[in-house]
Amino acid sequence: MSITLNALLKSPWVFHLSTGSCNNCDIEVLDCLTPRFDIERFGMLLTGSIKHADVLLVTGSCNRKSANRLKVLYDQAPKPCVVIAIGECSLSRGMFIHSYNCPVPLDKIIPVDAYIPGCPPKPEAIIAGAVKLIQKVRGK
Amino acid sequence: MARREEILKDIQTRFREDIVDFFDKSSKRVYIEIKPESIVRVAGYIFKELEARFNIASGVDARTHLEILYHFSLEDINLLISLRVKLDRENPEIDSLAPVFKGANWIEREIHELLGINFRGHPDLRRLLLAKEWPAGVYPLRADYREWDRNAIRDRGV
Amino acid sequence: MYLVYLIVYGVIATACIGLVASWIDRKLTARIQYRVGPPFFQPLRDIVKLLGKETLIPAGSSKGMFMFAPIIGFASVAVASTLLWMNSGTSAQSFLGDIIVVIYLLAIPSISIMLGGFASGNPVARVGASREMKLLLSYELPFILAVLVPIIKSGYSLKLNEILRTQSMNGSFALSISGILALIVFVLVMQAKLALVPFDIAEAETEIIDGPLTDYSGTGLALFRLMKNMLLFTLPFFLVILFLGGFHLDGIRILYSFLKYIAILLVITVIRNTNPRLRIDQAMKFFWGPVTGVAVVAVIFAILGM
Q: Which domain holds residue B68?
């Protein structure tokens, strides 16, 4: 595996993006970053700016307005970049599947690398999903 | 209690020709149905003289007509007054309350773009929540809304 | 010959010790907060990862200055650190006025962050850079006054090895009243120069978005982070030379030098973890008020010979 990808997995900087969620998944993501689960031992830091981000944690079902903004933001994240979709709403729009404002699921708008189901997923589930993603990227 | 009775009797006598129906549901909620022409007078009286707080307005598509409910609350006597107006489906129009109090400005924009009710006299009736590419004239919260987007994916793929 | 000094001592040694110091800081912060911290090579991994990402240049920025600002900062810290290292070896070479050069060079990293913030066309970066500018204006005066005290006490000389020689003859300057006052002022100003809490107003005040460094990605950000880590070594080194007798690289005195450096680093980290962040007007009042007063008192004591 190339050295840049190896370095990326050892120090992934996390950026949290909500495309119109009910904020429950956002609270669970925030729980993951607290000292109890301590992601700094894996080298993860929460960054404020999208241009410092390696991992995008996307929550929420994407409605029409935030789809435009999401495409702009995804272009500004420097590649190589990993996208993780958290919660049912970002997997397949969950219960908003027939809503007039959510036409397509998230992976038709930006490419997604890992899916974490749950409404909302527990922090342990989020960490397990991240570990599976790292193993998948390493095993390639 | 006495003040509550006094206020309700006052409204009933003052606006006798405008009130169509008066439903005293419980000690906390009162539904007053009025004619659409008199909304500015009645709402102005409740907001200014009674000093009630304007909470929100809600719009509904009942099958035969469109309705708007304006909710005013009087916190010191724990009373929520809801003013109901019924509008017909072909040409729903009503006077805007935005010149009376500023809190009605955005909620009328939202009701206009989602239900298609025209507010006469509103200073700025633009789009609030829907995206730019939403076609004009399509009102999603009406009962006869049908999907217009060809690229929408509505099955879960399983 | 000087080029060898620059590359080996200025860049490589400073970078290595700076990265280890950054690790110590993060691990100690994590332990104080009851959690496990990052593993040992983490700051190095951060910088290697940033070098592998693509660099995005915003469209509304002035592109030359945007790319040039991290290089200015990095170069100034490397040269300042070389000057300091050159006085600690056995062949100490210093010239008249080199302490003034070091003071100027150590003001440039903050200026380069400011330049970078203004050069990206981002309003958030602009606000962060203007706060950095205000902070810079307020802490430079106590800094110069605090550096003035060892100059006065070593007989009004402007050479670094004169200061070291006076300290090795008479005992280090921190054991006198004016020395202690100047040391306290220097520690507070160092906290602001390193952009650490309670004075990291520019970087993390716009806490959700990273201040002047918002638009940097890839190589520029790697250079800025490396510059900050090297500054974490250079400034305590300057303090040790001025007040605590300098580094000595022969025999048992290596251990003493090491302990002096670690003690300063511990003071920085403990101040960082036990204080909230100040607003910009509180920080300016703090530096122009009590800190400058204490520095002036220290200079007066130094002139009187105490």
A: 2-104
The set of residues, in sequence order, having a beta carbon less than 8 Å from that of A52 and lying 6+ positions away, is: A13, A15, C210, C213, C216, C217, C221
> Which residues of chain A approach chain B closer than 8 Å at the C-beta?
63-65, 68, 92, 97-98, 100-101, 103-105, 108
Distance, CA of C15 to CA of C78 (rounded, Å) = 9
- Which token pair is A88? 């049912």
- Of the candidates C47, C19, C37, C32, which has an alpha carbon nearest to the alpha carbon of residue A40? C37
Look at residue B99 and tell me if it is in a domain. Answer: yes
Q: What is the CATH number of the domain that holds B12?
A: 3.30.460.80
Distance from A98 to chain B by nearest Cα, in Å? 6
State whether B156 and A92 contact (CB < 8 Å).
yes
Token pair of A124 as six digits: 């342990």
* CB count in 10 Å sphere of residue C295: 27
Task: Collapse the DSSP code of B132 into the 3-class scheme (helix H, G, I; strand E, B; otherwise coil) and give the result.
Answer: coil
Among partner residues C45, C208, C216, which is closest to A48 by beta-carbon distance? C208
Q: Rounded to the nearest 10 degrees, how much is the dihedral formed by the CA atoms of C116, C118, C120, C125?
A: 100
Q: Is there a contact between A104 and B140 if contact means CB atoms under 8 Å apart? A: no
The answer to whether position B17 is within a domain reads yes
| Tens-digit pLDDT profile for residues B26-75 | 989 999 999 999 899 999 899 988 889 999 999 999 889 999 999 999 98
Contact (CB, 8 A) for B73 and B47: no
- Of 3.30.160.70, 3.40.50.300, 3.40.50.12280, 3.10.450.350, the CATH number of A3-139 is 3.40.50.12280
Would the pTM count as exceeding 0.80? yes
Establish if B128 belongs to a structural domain: no
Cα angle: A6, vertex A7, A9; to 5 degrees: 70
Length of chain B counted residue by residue: 158
Number of domains in chain B: 1
Reading the block at residue B106, the tokens are 């955005």
* 3-state secondary structure (DSSP) of residue B103: coil
In this predicted model, what pLDDT tens digit does every residue of B88-133 receive, in sequence order? 988 899 999 999 888 899 999 999 999 999 999 999 888 888 888 8
Residues of chain C positioned with their CB less than 8 A from the CB of A15: none
Which residues of chain A neighbour C38 with C-beta distances below 8 Å?
40-41, 43
Contact list in A for residue B113 (CB cut-off 8 A) is: none
Contacts A41 to C, Cβ<8 Å: 30, 35-39
Given an 8 Å threshold on Cβ–Cβ distance, is A92 in contact with B154?
Answer: no
CA distance C219 to chain A (A): 11
CB contact under 8 A, A64 and B140: no
Residue C98, domain extent: 2-303
Residue in chain A closest to B149 (alpha carbons) equals A103
Residues of A at the C interface, defined by Cβ within 8 angstroms: 3-4, 7-8, 10-11, 35, 38, 40-41, 43, 47-49, 51-52, 54, 76, 78-80
Question: Burial of A140 by CB count in 10 Å (0-12 exposed, 13-18 middle, 19+ buried)?
Answer: exposed
Q: Which amino acid is at C235?
A: L
What is chain A's length?
140
- ipTM for the assembly: 0.86
* Residue spans of alpha helices (H) in A18-122: 24-32, 64-76, 88-92
Average pLDDT, stretch A33-44?
A: 83
